[in-house]
Amino acid sequence: MDPTPFTRGLAFAAKEHVGSRVPPECTERFACDTASAAQVPAGVRLEFSGNAGAVDIDATTGTMHPLAAPVPEQYFSVWLSGRLHTRIPAAPGARQKLHIDLPPHGRNKPVTIHLPEGYRPVLHSIEPIGGTIFPLPPRQRWVAYGDSITQGWTTSDPGRAWTAVAAREANLDVINLGFAGAARGELPAASFVSTVPTDVISLAWGTNCWSQIPMDRSYITELMRFFLTVIRSGHPETPIVVLSPLVRPQAESIPNSAGATLEDLRQGIEAAVATFATTENDGRIHLVPGRELISSSHLVDGIHPGDQGHALIGQAMAAALTSAIRSGYGVETAPRVR
């Protein structure tokens, strides 16, 4: 069977799965690091239900991508009704035929298969054994733009990334536009987001503006205004949830080469969101302050959260996304989860 009807997490139609999360005509305008990170199929997955006792998947893997989340091993990760069921090791640079047994108690329940993202597999076919499978019904779509943390750094499994956690809790179909080493509010990315049909959008960027391309508070404040303006050109009514930068101990009080601490940049982003909502009379923009959402103990390397940190972020963002979709009014603070 063609895997296309079962594939989720792509913002555009792609016959060869998956190649890139961004279409070529948009990638040409992206920064090189963003275009490279887009080749990692973060959040791309197979979803189905049915009465089959097993499925066979035919896939060809590539070599390890340097911007994939640094996990010890690459797996096809099988989740059943929102819980990890099994993981099948993937080999790099090989055509691989996988046999995945599905337990009797899992019949007619949702199955999600996360890909070994680092190996960027091409999916050729999926075949049910001893029954039939069907694509899951459509759900509300969520476009999540951000940096490496949105992409899934550094969890033990793609299904434990905060975007996956939030999507399960809020019953959303997430398109992960997290770009490791990038996501500095580039306007070509905002332009792409503005073209993707979606029911809700999240923006989570800023920490790379302290280090990689240093910015000060006034610059990032204005950049966020432009970023929101471009998105609103294509999504005038779509709820937007902005997550300001998470804690990063090294950067909180140390100025970058532009003279700004991460706290300065965080305040600039939060001020931009509040000002945009007021001046544009935009009641569908929502703010989740990131500073206290997790603690430094949840970071595995001083920057990226591990599984527990991602779980906390996912829970908070699920609440914020659900609230934004239901109400859409007012710059609001999502409940903090500790």
TrEMBL record:
Transmembrane segments: none annotated. Residues 142-317 form the SGNH hydrolase-type esterase domain. It comes from the Bacteria. InterPro entries: Ester_Hydrolysis_Enzymes, SGNH_hydro, SGNH_hydro_sf. SUPFAM superfamilies: SGNH hydrolase. This is GDSL family lipase. It comes from Arthrobacter mobilis.
